[in-house]
């Protein structure tokens, strides 16, 4: 059986792995070159971004995500893009606003 290829490395842990469910397991927001995090607004991603002090561009889709968006946006830690009417320009504006 071939070894699973990994990309980059942080603190001895693979940052991304082809196959398996660990790509993005806390490494993206902590990377020193991360300037903004595009997120669907799930709780785990929000906690990681807050912990690492990374501003967020939120695209809430369902469940608790719109409510999470309201709270984080009110604190000034995020910019929101509407999922149902998203355009390329909206995402670019969100990134510029977050950075």
List keywords for this structure.
UDP-glycosyltransferase; Rossmann fold; three-stranded parallel beta sheet; alpha/beta; globular; single chain; 3 helices; two-stranded antiparallel ribbon; disordered N terminus; 99 residues; transferase; glycosyltransferase
What is the N-to-C order of secondary-structure elements (H for helix, E for strand)?
EEEHEHEH
> Which residues form runs of ≥5 with pLDDT under 50?
1-10, 15-24
Into how many domains do the coordinates divide?
2
> Any idea what the CATH superfamily of the largest domain is called?
Glycogen Phosphorylase B
Helical run tally: 3
Query: In angstroms, what separates the terminal alpha carbons?
Result: 43 Å
CATH class group of the largest domain: Alpha Beta
Record field, number of beta strands: 5
Query: Main sheet: which strands, in order across?
Result: 3-4-5
- Our estimate of the beta-strand percent is 15-25%
Shape: globular
Question: What's the main sheet like?
Answer: 3 strands, parallel
Oligomer: single chain
CATH fold label of the largest domain: Rossmann fold
Helix content: 25-40%
Rounded Rg: 15 Å
Question: Which structural class do the helices and strands define?
Answer: alpha/beta
Mean pLDDT: 74
CATH architecture of the largest domain: 3-Layer(aba) Sandwich
């Amino acid at each position: 059986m071939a070894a699973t290829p990994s990309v980059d490395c942080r603190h001895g842990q693979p940052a991304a792995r082809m196959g398996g469910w660990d790509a993005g397991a806390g490494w993206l927001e902590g990377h020193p070159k991360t300037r903004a995090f595009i997120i669907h607004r799930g709780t785990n991603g929000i906690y990681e971004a807050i912990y690492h002090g990374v501003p967020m561009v939120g695209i809430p889709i369902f469940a608790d995500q719109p409510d999470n968006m309201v709270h984080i946006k009110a604190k000034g830690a995020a910019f929101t893009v509407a999922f149902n009417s998203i355009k390329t320009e909206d995402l670019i504006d969100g990134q510029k606003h977050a950075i």
